[in-house]
Amino acid sequence: MFRKLFLLFILAACTLTVQAKTSKMQLDSAKMVEKQRKKFIKQTDFVYIPKGSFRKGLPPTKGSTESREEVVSVDEFYMINREITNIDYLEFLYWLKTQKDERLANMLPDTMVWRSKLAYNEPYVEYYLRHPAYRNYPIVGVSYNQAIAFCDWLSDRYNERPDKIYNKVRFRLPTEKEWEYAARGGLELSLYPWGGPYVRNAKGDFLANCQYFGESGICRDTLYTKNEKGEFEPISIYRVSPSSYYMGVPGQLNDNGDVTAPAISYAPNAYGLYNMAGNVAEMVMEEGVSCGGSWMDPAYYMQNHVRQYYKGKNSSSSKRGFRIVMEVID
Fold first, then answer.
1. Is 89 helix (H, G, I), strand (E, B) or coil?
2. Contact (CB, 8 A) for 291 and 282
3. Please, which of 99, 124, 138, 218 could form a disulfide with 128 given CB 3.0 to 4.6 Å?
4. pLDDT tens-digit readout, 72-115
5. Torsion of CA 123, 288, 305, 55, to 10 degrees
């Protein structure tokens, strides 16, 4: 009897020892992960987005007018705290040039996106991409394919560095749900990245680089369209006079920029992310979808859950750019 109790005691002691060692190893591993995380954040422009979930709004189903919601879970990831800038993309182009990479011609942004009827935008066509004054402004005129190629290039360059913090990583566009989750900044019921329901602060200054339409500038027009019988019927549309875009705005004359603003502008959200609303609409992993609205969009498109759409992997715009996330593979 005594021998059995002694054996049980030894077995229990061994089990506790193993558990203690396992707990210590797990604790040491967690400390190592946290140490790497802090080191990476300190040396880069990335912020850590913890895993979590949020209620994502969905469009009504066919035949219904009621909106839907679902709880969406997101794993942890790193996201750059700003939009990809001209100087970021120029480094990519320079590397292709030095390597005599045949892809260079296909990776050049379309600077013609700045041209528009009844507007003189030639300075932007000539200088926006390459002039030093715009080096920290968001890259525009790039397509979905070019954004993907930039991410792949950055992944390769990081993974071959001898001083890298992680053994292997992957840079990519964020998914829709990752983007919205990050834009909310941990605020479940957040309408805008800054958390409040308004696009201006108490001083009347804008909280994002977007378009403002004063009530006095909104007018009604009548158009005519054919009905099923081929008869013309009048319809009313509401539009904004371009001359009234910035009229009646308190504080600054406009919102901090004639077109885009520097990639680090305005106040960041609770995760430390700049310009998740406005400046340039940001492409996500899902092809044809952009989030966050742009400098040419009204405040409606600044809302976290609102999406915009574009056509084709090769389409580009002066209103659209991108930011990237990083996932640790090893």
1. helix
2. yes
3. 124
4. 899 999 999 999 999 999 999 999 999 999 999 999 999 999 99
5. -150
d(CA 317, CA 57): 27
Q: How many beta carbons lie within 10 A of that of residue 221, not counting itself? A: 9
Question: Quick one: which H or E segment has residue 57?
Answer: strand 52-58
Question: 258 φ, ψ to 5°?
Answer: -65, -40
Q: How far apart are the C-alpha atoms of 293 and 302, rounded to whole Å?
A: 5
Residues 6+ apart with CB under 8 A from 71: 53, 54, 55, 56
Q: Do the Cβ atoms of 117 and 137 come closer than 8 Å?
A: no
Give the full edge-to-edge strand order of the sheet including 281-283.
Answer: 307-309, 289-291, 281-283, 320-321
pLDDT of 229-288, one tens digit each?
777 777 766 555 554 444 444 444 445 667 999 999 999 999 999 999 999 999 999 999
H/E stretch holding 6 reads helix 2-43
Chain center to CA of 40: 20
Domains, the chain, ranges and CATH?
77-210+265-328 (3.90.1580.10), 215-244 (no CATH)
Q: In what helix (H) or strand (E) does residue 30 lie, and over which residues does it extend?
A: helix 2-43
| pTM: predicted TM-score of the whole model, two decimal places | 0.81
